[in-house]
Amino acid sequence: MIFEGLAEKLQNTLGKLKGKGKLNEKDVNDAMREVKLALLEADVNFKVVKQFVEKVKERAIGQEVMESLTPGQHVIKIVNEELTNLMGNVQSKINFSSRPPTVIMLVGLQGAGKTTTAGKLGGYLKKQGKKPLLVACDIYRPAAIKQLKVVGEQLGIPVFELGDQKSPVDIAREGLEKSKIDGNDVLIIDTAGRLHIDTELMDELVNIKQSIRPHEILLVIDSMTGQDAVNVAESFNSALGIDGVILTKLDGDTRGGAALSVKAVTQKPIKFAGIGEKLDELEPFYPDRIASRILGMGDILGLIEKAQANIDEKKAKELEQRIRKQQFTFEDFLEQLEQVKKLGPLNKILEMMPGMGQMKQLKDIDFDDKEIVKVQAIIQSMTRQERNDPDILNASRKKRIARGSGTSVQEVNRLLKQFEQTKKMMKKFAGMEKSFKKGRQCK
Ligand code: GDP
Fold it and tell me: What are the beta bridge partners of residue 329?
């Protein structure tokens, strides 16, 4: 889970406040000392931590808390708001030019994820109806051009390249011309990186900048490198001037130091976050949602957006009806699995649910997506009649299903048991809903 270490510590510390009816200055000071340690351990810039803690204390010890009915929760609310502020408060979008093409130049150190991100960003913009062109200006790293071409092919996005013999400035300039001819409205330029910042690299980037005047210079940094990433951001910003940051590898970042410091240190917003190696694993960066995730409040909005984009509403309604009427069968179960699969890997979905990050039991369970595939195979090996009436499953039928799905009879039995439990649970829920509605009508 992203920022798992930090999230756990903050949630534990703040959880202690939750139960208290009254808070005095000492309670707040003690809690803030722990918050400070947690943030420092997460590799957040120390100046940022200091300011953050001061701000929360100032607000929490002031009148706000005195008047609040649940002071503990009020402090959590303040921490949430201040974390959000740290990361820039609102989501920062790409500034599209009123006279296309909009030119986006991606810069960053080698290995930060630039080439991958160029593709991801292209794919993201294509989904929004844009017509991007990727331009391969990294002529130094062997295979960088090839990599961009492969990525472009996978996404169905054209890639402009002139091999590695022309200068990056020329390639960028010709790419810009090409986009005008072909009617591409966004140009994404993948530039060269180095292992460390050096003046030669910066000079080259400045030359490209002056030659094609990009609308956005976005710095790609690896969030797992913590404060190093923030230092890189400062250097690029002072030498080149950047418009924003794309933070990659957030999926592997348990600490969160870069995400929480980069805006406060450089004054430049994080515009996108990379959350996996796959080409669709790039998300706009929403400070409020990230703050909520860190504090275990979940990211319900994100989950809803995912669901809206992927789930067939009509089918969901039908399913709801069937559950209400208690007609839930293996056919429905299969359908439901298909829908859930569209939302992405299970552990990522769970991360977005409030309180889930804190549930220790869940951490030990391996939410293996292969399990879903197995369950699907078992159901698919059943006949229609069996799916609708699992009671007819005798030993020989079970054996046949196990063989057909490449599983064992034990696994088939386990699924049948789980299915029965799910049905029972649904019955209970339906019952609860009824009595709740009745209760409301009586009022
Ligand atoms: P470049 O040298 O900056 O162009 O970096 P690449 O685009 O080649 O990426 C370096 C490595 O980071 C590759 O193995 C990518 O798959 C990986 N990578 C990039 N973005 C992400 C991300 O958001 N999450 C994860 N887990 N890996 C990423």
Answer: none
3-57 tens-digit pLDDT: 888 888 888 888 887 767 677 888 889 889 999 999 999 999 999 999 999 999 9
Rounded to 10 degrees, the C-alpha dihedral 176/177/179/182 comes to: 180
Are 352 and 299 a contacting pair, CB within 8 Å? yes
* Mutational pocket test of ligand 1: of 116, 194, 195, the residue with most ligand atoms within 8 Å of the beta carbon: 116
Q: Read off the pTM.
A: 0.73
Domains of the chain: residue spans and CATH = 4-86 (1.20.120.140), 102-297 (3.40.50.300), 303-442 (1.10.260.30)
How much is the average pLDDT of 350-355?
Answer: 62
- pLDDT per residue as tens digits for the range 22-34: 778 888 898 899 9
Which of 431, 424, 419 lies closest to 391, judged by CA?
419
User: What spacing in Å lies between the alpha carbon of 412 and ligand 1's midpoint?
Assistant: 40
Check: CB of residue 261 under 8 Å from CB of residue 45. Answer: yes
d(CA 180, CA 183): 5
Q: From ligand 1's centre to the CA of 102, what distance in Å?
A: 24
Q: Is 163 annotated as a binding residue?
A: no
Provide the token pair at 431.
């019952």
